[in-house]
Write a structure and sequence with these properties.
Rossmann fold, 7-stranded parallel β-sheet, 5-stranded parallel β-sheet, disordered N terminus, 2 domains, alpha/beta
Length: about 325
C-alpha cells in the first residue's frame, strides 16, 4: 500500500534541525532550496507547485522569492525574529507568516544574563589568563560588582521582562526604554534612548531587527553609555554600528561589550577578536536542546495548523 500524497509542498530555504525536517517529511514534500544549483531555473520549472516556504529567522524569505511563487499560502519560520522575511510583501498577497515566540524567552534571558555577568566580572578574560600561564606571574585584576548597578533594557517585551526578573535577583536596578511606557511593569521608564543609556551601567538590547532599528546604537549612543558602561546585544547585529562599537571599545568610550549577534553572521569583525573587553558568542541565545525542541514543536504546530485546520497557532 502506498502512503497518501503529501498535503502540501514546501520550499525549505536553508537547513533546519534534522529531526524537524524528518518530521515534516512524514507529511509534506520538502524541496531543499539551498541545494539547488540554479535557483532561477528551478523556480521557473517548479514555482507553481510550492504551497509554503519553510525558513528561519536567519534564512528569511525575500520579497522577490515570495512574489515568484504564485500559489504560496504561508511562510512558516523557525525563530522569533522575522526581520529577514518580507512580511509586508507576504501580507499584501494574503500569505500567512508565522514565527515561534514565547517558547524561547527564558532561554534567551538566561544567555543574556550569562554574557552580562561574563563581561562585567571578566570571566572569559580570567579563563584566558589562567590558560596562558599568567597566574604564575601575578594576580588577575579586579572587576566591578554587578549588584547595585543599573541594567537598562532597550525593548521591554516578553524577553526583556524575563531578563529584568533575572538581573533583579543579582541586585541590579532595572530601567527601560520602549516605544511606549508599559502599564504592567514598575521599572523606571526613559522616553529617550540616550536618556536610558546615560543612566545605565549595562545597556541590554532586546529590540527586533529591520530598517527601524538599523544602527540604532552608533557613536553618539555609545558616548551616552560612557566609559564605565557595558553594551550587551542579544537582539540583531544590525542594531549596532559595528565600526563605531570597535572604535568605542578601542578608545575607552565604553568599558566593554557582550555580543551574541553580528551584522554579517557568521563573519565577525576581526578587530573584535583581539579585544579583551569583549565577550563573543555565536548566536546561541536560544541554543539549548529543550528550547530548540519547543521551537520545533511550535513550528510544526503552525505548519499543521495552517494546512490541516486553516489556522496557524502564532501568526505574525
Amino acid at each position: 500500500m502506498t502512503s497518501p500524497a503529501p498535503t502540501a509542498q514546501l520550499l525549505m530555504i536553508g537547513p533546519l534541525l534534522p529531526a524537524l525536517v524528518a518530521r515534516i517529511e512524514q507529511t509534506y514534500r520538502v524541496h531543499r532550496f539551498w541545494e539547488v544549483d540554479d535557483p532561477s531555473a528551478w523556480l521557473q520549472a517548479n514555482a507553481g507547485s510550492i504551497d509554503a516556504i519553510a525558513t528561519s529567522g536567519v534564512f528569511g524569505a525575500k520579497a522577490e522569492l515570495i512574489e515568484a511563487l504564485p500559489n504560496l499560502k504561508a511562510v512558516i519560520s523557525f525563530g522569533v525574529g522575522y526581520d529577514a522575511i518580507a512580511v509586508d510583501t507576504a501580507k499584501k498577497r494574503g500569505v500567512t507568516v508565522t514565527n515561534t515566540p514565547g517558547v524561547l524567552d527564558n532561554c534567551v534571558a538566561d544567555t543574556t544574563v550569562a554574557i552580562l555577568l561574563d563581561v562585567g566580572r571578566r570571566i572569559s578574560e580570567a579563563d584566558r589568563f589562567v590558560r596562558a600561564g599568567e597566574w604564575q606571574s601575578g594576580r588577575f585584576p579586579l572587576a566591578g560588582s554587578i549588584g547595585g548597578k543599573v541594567c537598562g533594557i532597550v525593548g521591554m517585551g516578553n524577553i526583556g521582562r524575563a531578563i529584568a526578573k533575572r538581573v533583579e535577583a543579582f541586585g541590579m536596578t532595572v530601567a527601560y526604554h520602549n516605544r511606549r511606557r508599559r502599564d504592567d511593569v514598575d521599572y523606571a521608564y526613559h522616553e529617550t534612548l540616550e536618556g536610558l543609556l546615560e543612566a545605565a551601567d549595562y545597556a541590554v538590547l532586546v529590540v527586533p531587527g529591520g530598517s527601524s532599528t538599523d544602527k540604532l546604537i552608533g557613536a553618539e549612543q555609545l558616548r551616552a553609555l560612557g566609559p564605565e558602561g557595558y553594551l550587551v546585544n542579544i537582539a540583531r547585529g544590525s542594531v549596532v554600528d559595528e565600526q563605531a562599537l570597535v572604535e568605542a571599545l578601542h578608545n575607552g568610550t565604553i568599558a566593554g561589550a557582550a555580543l551574541d549577534v553580528f551584522a554579517d553572521e557568521p563573519q565577525v569583525p576581526a578587530e573584535l577578536l583581539t579585544l579583551n573587553n569583549v565577550v563573543l558568542t555565536p548566536h546561541i541565545g536560544s541554543g539549548t536542546h529543550e528550547t530548540r525542541q519547543a521551537m520545533a514543536d511550535l513550528f510544526f504546530a503552525n505548519l499543521d495548523g495552517f494546512f490541516k485546520h486553516g489556522k496557524a497557532v502564532t501568526p505574525v
